UniProtKB/TrEMBL annotation:
InterPro entries: DNA_brk_join_enz, Integrase-like_cat_sf, Integrase_catalytic, Integrase_DNA-bd_sf, Integrase_DNA_bind_dom, Phage_Integrase
Lineage of the organism: Bacteria, Pseudomonadati, Pseudomonadota, Betaproteobacteria, Burkholderiales
Source organism of this protein record: Cupriavidus necator (strain ATCC 43291 / DSM 13513 / CCUG 52238 / LMG 8453 / N-1) (Ralstonia eutropha)
Leader sequence segment: none
Source taxon at top rank: Bacteria
Protein name (Swiss-Prot/TrEMBL): Phage integrase family protein
Length: 443
């Protein structure tokens, strides 16, 4: 192939002849340096040489970006690589891989907790729990999102704004800064105001850190002792149930009288249902009319633990009369025309109002669930029966593997619990609405 001395005029005037896809001219000063012009008018400096008898060709760059001298120097460098037995294309690929690895390392080290928390939530939504071998509940995932919320948005009720989640101050940090000192300072700031929420948030954060360590692209970024350092564990307070967050037997009369006097029948029935069933607040709030069987006296609860099948519990006579009297506005049993979801959203206000009206010490909504388990002991109900109605995990080997109580057995005990509560409250259930057909169980 003929070689010419590259000049600005010759480089600028080189074009691809008509009828050809590309055309080359070769420099006489730098071995292997050529200029390629294509049919669409593009030009580029190239290098071509021989390595172990095979032709090696690689692109140097556009003449608009490379001067002739620069292109000649690059061609000489590439020729030296070939003389050493190195393929310039492999060298270029090696540099590209190293550059991409550097960029990836930079990205992973600059990744924030918020970015990875979003990925973690997606993992929780889409993957099966390795512990339970079942999908995680929507409430569990919502709790994670709430822990990291920055707050400041309009509350569902009133003119107040939402408060930030306990994990919010950590969300803007890079993963590499999630150190033991940082977590210790975070706990010391969060714990005095809300110790239980801070402890719960720490447990969720600890699981998040373990998950990050299991991801190849983020392994080794978070300091290994960020959650296990004595500094951090020493800043944690022992979580305990608030003293008195449970109704006593002698308080049932005042509590039922106040709750039954609420103007909103949906809220009244819902609060009484929490105490009578011992269900979690969201489990009962999510009850649909399709989940209620008045004929065979049963409720299908969307269980927090049994997320797929849920659990079936008895529908006791008094609770059945309350549900039958509720308006059927939509699919939800405890409907609310003012709520965006169509169902009851925040019953705490009504309950606090009833507690104040009755002159009782404060009892939380979860305290009503706790009250069911505690008051059931007055009826000498087997612990396993109470646990199965409330949806607790079996706590003993026999309960876990050898007890499968049918609904009629649970109904026998559940009716006794409700009847005892009504007796203590001075409520007499003499008649039932005609729409409620209760089936008498055989002796």
């Amino acid at each position: 192939m003929a070689r010419i001395n590259f000049t600005a005029a010759r480089v600028g005037g080189h074009v691809c002849p008509a009828g050809k896809s590309q055309a080359f001219i070769w420099d006489s000063k730098a071995s292997g340096l050529g200029l390629r012009a294509t049919a669409n008018g593009a030009k580029s400096y190239i290098f071509q040489g021989k390595l172990h008898g095979s032709t090696v060709r690689t692109t140097i760059g556009d003449p608009r970006d490379w001067s002739i001298d620069q292109a000649q120097d690059e061609a000489r460098r590439l020729q030296r690589l070939i003389d050493e037995g190195v393929d310039p294309r492999a060298e270029k690929a090696k540099q590209r891989v190293a550059h991409e690895a550097e960029l990836a390392d930079s990205r992973r080290r600059s990744a924030t907790v918020a970015e990875m928390w979003a990925d973690y939530l997606e993992y929780l939504r889409t993957k099966i729990s390795p512990k339970t071998k079942k999908p995680r509940s929507a409430q569990y995932i919502a709790d994670h999102a709430k822990l990291a919320t920055p707050g400041g948005t309009a509350a569902k009720r009133g003119s107040k704004t939402t408060t930030r989640g306990p994990l919010s101050p950590l969300m803007t940090l890079p993963l590499s800064e999630l150190s033991a000192d940082r977590l210790c300072a975070w706990l010391e700031a969060e714990t005095p105001a809300r110790p239980t929420s801070a402890a719960y948030a720490f447990r969720m954060l600890k699981a998040f850190v373990r998950w990050c360590e299991g991801q190849d692209q983020y392994k080794g970024i978070i300091p290994a002792d960020c959650c296990t350092s004595p500094k951090v564990t020493g800043a944690l307070r022992a979580s305990s149930t608030k003293a008195g967050d449970c109704l006593q037997r002698e308080q049932l009369a005042a509590w039922f009288a106040a709750v039954r006097s609420l103007h909103n029948p949906v809220q009244s029935a819902y609060l009484q249902g929490l105490l009578i069933t011992g269900a979690r607040r969201e489990e009962l709030a999510a009850l649909r009319w399709d989940d209620v069987d008045f004929t065979w006296r049963s409720l299908h609860i969307a269980d927090k633990i049994e997320t797929e099948a849920g659990r079936m519990i008895p529908l006791t006579p008094y609770l059945a009369s309350l549900l039958a009297a509720l308006p059927r506005r939509n699919d939800w049993v405890f409907s609310s025309p003012g709520a965006a979801s169509g169902r009851i959203a925040e019953p705490r206000y009504a309950h606090n109002q009833a507690i104040a009206m009755a002159g009782l010490p404060h009892v939380s909504l979860h305290g009503l669930r706790r009250s069911f388990g505690t008051l059931a002991e007055w009826c000498e109900v087997p612990v396993g029966v109470v646990a199965q109605i409330q949806g607790h995990r079996p706590s003993a080997l026999a309960e876990k593997h050898y007890r499968r109580r049918p609904l009629d057995m649970l109904r026998l005990w559940h009716d006794k619990i409700e009847a005892w509560m009504l007796e203590q409250a001075g409520i007499c259930l003499e008649s039932r609405p005609p729409s409620v057909q209760l089936v008498k169980q055989p002796a």
